[in-house]
Amino acid sequence: MNLESVKNQITKVLVTEEQIVGRVAELAAEIDAKYAGKEVLLVGVLKGAVMFMADLSRALQIPSTMDWMALSSYGSGTVSSGVIRILKDLDAEIHGKHVIIVEDIIDSGLTLSWLAGTLESRGAASVDVVAFLRKPDAAKVDVPVWLVGFDIPNEFVVGYGLDYNEHYRTLNCVAVLDPKVYS
Ligand code: IMP
Ligand code: MG
């Protein structure tokens, strides 16, 4: 979906499609370098990380497998509740694997710090976190993030997997949702 179709529902574009393509290649190169000679298990958090996972995984040169978790912390609103539930767990054991958590965005950081701890306690050989976007509040929590695609201001954004009430995930850039859409 291109910008034109949602022009009247967004206030500005924060990250363009071109910027995304360039940054994803850089992130993949960092992963290739750190994990050279190893295989990684990419753990994606549904559904927001779907687009990022698809692009990042294909940009990697090292071997990788994929698994998915679905967590809930937000409900349908725009403010984090801090309560995390597993809606769908991983399909397979992660014991001894090099796990890379692939996240769409770190806001409060509550989801990630909980998830990283959970996967470590399952006996992964290593756990790293790669997040496509990060908001300023993430600094308040001790989140173990290795790589971040883009640091963005504290605004509600949609696109490239990120939704508002399940909409706008297929937008090919990251844009600030016009508050009139949710108020
Ligand atoms: P956290 O636990 O507060 O870090 O929440 C992270 C999750 O909230 C992300 O994985 C997103 O699904 C959702 N989220 C946070 N900020 C936004 C946003 O600006 N747009 C869409 N979803 C968001
Ligand atoms: Mg979401």
What is the string of SSEs from the N terminus onward? EHEHEEEHEEEE
Strand content: 25-35%
C-alpha termini separation? 24 Å
Summed over residues and divided by their number, the pLDDT gives a mean of: 93
- The largest beta-sheet arranges its strands as 4-3-2-5-6-7
The beta-strand count equals 9
The total count of helices amounts to 3
Which kinds of small molecule does this entry bind, naming each only once? inosinic acid, magnesium ion
Keywords:
183 residues; alpha/beta; six-stranded mixed beta sheet; three-stranded antiparallel beta sheet; 3 helices; 9 strands; binds inosinic acid; binds magnesium ion
Task: Provide an overview of this structure.
With 183 residues, the chain is an alpha/beta fold. It has three helices and nine strands; from the N terminus they run βαβαβββαββββ. Bound molecules: inosinic acid and magnesium ion (MG). The site of inosinic acid has 18 residues, from β5, α3 and β8.
Provide a concise account of the structure shown.
The protein is of the alpha/beta class and 183 residues long. It contains three helices and nine strands; from the N terminus they run βαβαβββαββββ.
Which helices and strands appear, and what pairs or packs with what?
Layout: E1 10-15, H1 17-34, E2 40-46, H2 50-59, E3 64-72, E4 85-88, E5 98-106, H3 110-121, E6 126-134, E7 147-151, E8 157-158, E9 174-177
Parallel strand pairs: 2-3, 2-5, 5-6, 6-7
Antiparallel strand pairs: 1-9, 3-4, 8-9
Bound molecules: inosinic acid and magnesium ion (MG).
